[in-house]
Amino acid sequence: MTVEECVTKEYKCILNSANSKTHFISSNQCLNEWDDKCEDSPKYQHVFYQFTCSCITDTTNELIEIASSQWEKLRNLYGNKRIYSCSYNLLQTLIDCVKQNENFKVSIYSLNGDWETDGTFIAKFYNQIYCNTLSDNFQRLLDILNCLDNTQEYWVSGYQERFSSTVKQHFLLCGLLENEFKEEGTFWYHLPIEEALAFQDKAPHHLNLRHLEETHADQVNSVWPHRQPGSLEYVKLLIQCFDSVGVFDEGNNLIAWCLVAPLGCLSLLQVIDSHKRQGLGQLAVRYMSSLLARKGLEVTAPVVFNNIASRSLFEKMGFKVVDKKI
């Protein structure tokens, strides 16, 4: 049974703390089946619950789509927030994707058509929801989240730590119990553009660097610590729509890689076990950092709190923590 086939008013919440996302999906008797599928991913933390949904009915607010011709103006509102999650980089990355591919499916919404006042928006890509506001009062952010159709599958992803209580309140209003809401996030690392531009990103003569292809998605997903049902399609979309780099040996074998997430940050950095401690992770990071910097984007990377190895790598390369992302 797929998630799409689950149509009753019982709900399941999966809190993917390792991948820093809050997931809210509708479900019925597929709880045990989903649980079985997750058993092979020990770092995938999940919580199941069932309850009768008390749907949010708000006739005073509605989502109004922001025309793509206005996205640059919305992006510019976040010009002095460039190093933070769900800000300038996210919007610029989505703008670039739409320009390159007219069939790229992404929508950005305002609350009641008003986004110029305080920059409040949500962006929908795949089943991901990204949100932000420039206001110090988060009521409008809560209102726009409450306009989402909570009978559909979605993840609220990448939000800044300061919005944690607002996102929590949204899910509590959806029917989630207080003791069932758990979240763990990531350190949000940043490297200034000028430092990224100074990186030497050329590969040794026996290695080849190039953009990943969709055929590599299986390998990338198979060793992703946070993989889950449906994550293969997500990885394919990342490869299709965003920048990436693969490190290939002389036999054309993929041995390391780094992708860019919709947030416009480095993501899914991985080196296969047989080639670790050879500097390949740093090579991939240098290459992707330079690529983002040449596009005028701040270089950022989320790292799970307990991933000491990755934290050490980024810190040795000059990245510094500027925020936490949930």
From TrEMBL:
SUPFAM superfamilies reported for this sequence: Acyl-CoA N-acyltransferases (Nat)
A molecular function GO annotation: acyltransferase activity, transferring groups other than amino-acyl groups
N-acetyltransferase domain sequence ranges: 207-326
Ranges in coiled-coil conformation: none
Superkingdom in the source lineage: Eukaryota
Xref: InterPro entries: Acyl-CoA_N-acyltransferase, Acyl_CoA_acyltransferase, GCN5-like_dom, GNAT_dom
Stated name of the protein: N-acetyltransferase domain-containing protein
Organism of provenance: Glossina brevipalpis
